[in-house]
Amino acid sequence: MTGLSLESLLVELAEVPGASGREAGVAAAIAGRLNAAGIETRFDRLGNLYATILSGQPGAKPTLLLSAHMDTIGLVVRDVDEHGVVRILPIGGVNRRTLLGLEVWIHGKERVFGVVGATPPHLTTPAERKKVAPWEQFFVDTGLGASEVRALVRPGDWITFATAPVRLGNGRLSSPGLDNRAGVAAVLWSGLRLAASRAALPVDVVLCFTVQEELGTRGAAAAEPAPLPDAAVVVDVGFGDMPGVKPRDSIGFGSGPALTSGPNIHPGVRRYLAAVAERLGVRVQDEVMAGSSGTDAWELQVAGVGIPSAVVSIPLRYMHSTVEAVNLADLEQAARLLEAACIEADAAEVWGWSGGPVAREVE
């Protein structure tokens, strides 16, 4: 941890490509950080990454899971046409309105740089200019001829955005993939600090970094944390307030992380996080979801015999674009909350959420 800031960790993670289904690179980066800190890691069959920080106290201890998805949205090669133009399709909820003119990397036999081309507005009809082009009209131009492109690129190769992380004013950072590398950074940072402190924790802490959340929380649906956790805290991003978004549809940007309420959330776990935040002096906001939270908590809540779950949301602006932005103060507050939640946990309370210290297996 010496010399590693939370901001530098976030930038490090944001710079590693890892669209849904292609998370191996970012998983290796996360595992590398954990292994260097003396924390063992393991993977399940789908590619989810796990690491355990044991309590260090004698006797059985409840298990608290901290989870964040490590995949991002991206693109995939559909085909290469006779002109060498690479036709594309989306991986996850890509906003077509933000694609035109972007710089990208095609991860083929070699990494190939390209730009997302666009028909000049002078050559489009007034009707065409009023609507977003369909996917069939999007393409990547590498500057190479058809035979050169086909030697390097194949259908199914994945594409990521070449935009680099940049520091904005007032302690803000913009980058592709902050959904959800911000959550990954918060979980990883808190885990590294817990391990470095060598303090005897009241719970065993499992860190979980899932795959394919952007394709419908698929990684969490196949997650195999063992033993089954007594509680889970999922860290993801929420809609930070921004021009054009109604206040009731967003959470304050720079106002601290939000704690979600709703049927996807165990009220006891949420109350505990709110109490820890108050003691710690961390400002938290309310976020209400009437059904699914849209996060991995939707799957973890019903994993095995059920895991009492809560969601911590880091405010994010411009979600699913290449200029997603976070306030670093919000990120720091979220990471501090996670760390303190593990340190201050009461074993009896945690066991109470899950029905007590009984032997269970993941079904």
Break the fold down into its secondary structure elements and pairings.
Elements: H1 6-14, H2 24-36, E1 41-43, E2 49-53, E3 63-69, E4 74-80, E5 86-91, E6 103-107, E7 111-116, H3 126-129, E8 139-141, H4 146-152, E9 158-161, E10 166-168, E11 172-174, H5 178-197, E12 204-210, H6 218-221, E13 231-239, E14 258-261, H7 267-280, E15 285-288, H8 297-300, E16 309-317, E17 325-327, H9 328-343, H10 347-354
Parallel strand pairs: 3-12, 3-13, 13-16, 14-15
Antiparallel strand pairs: 1-2, 2-12, 4-5, 4-9, 5-8, 6-7, 6-9, 7-8, 10-11, 11-17, 14-16, 16-17
Helix pairs in contact: 1-5, 5-9, 7-9
Structure in words:
- This protein has about 375 residues and is an alpha+beta fold.
- The protein folds into two domains: about 5-70 and about 175-355, 3-Layer(aba) Sandwich (Aminopeptidase); about 75-160, Beta Barrel (Elongation Factor Tu (Ef-tu), domain 3).
- The chain has helices at about 5-15, 25-35, 125-130, 145-150, 180-195, 220, 265-280, 295-300, 330-345, 345-355; strands at about 40-45, 50-55, 65-70, 75-80, 85-90, 105, 110-115, 140, 160, 165-170, 170-175, 205-210, 230-240, 260, 285-290, 310-315, 325.
- The longest helix is centred in the middle third of the chain and has 20 residues, at about 180-195.
- The radius of gyration is 21 Å and the shape is globular.
- The protein starts with 5 loop residues before the first helix and ends in a 9-residue tail after the last helix.
- The model is unreliable at about 360-363 (pLDDT under 50).
Give the name of the CATH superfamily of the largest domain.
Zn peptidases
Write the CATH architecture name of the largest domain: 3-Layer(aba) Sandwich
**Helical residues, percent:** 25-40%
Number of domains: 2
Radius of gyration, rounded?
21 Å
H/E element order: HHEEEEEEEHEHEEEHEHEEHEHEEHH
- Major sheet details: 11 strands, mixed
Q: Could you give the count of β-strands?
A: 17
By secondary-structure content and strand pairing, the structural class works out as: alpha+beta
**What is the percentage of strand-forming residues?**
15-25%
Overall mean pLDDT stands at 94
Low-confidence stretches: 358-363
CATH topology of the largest domain: Aminopeptidase
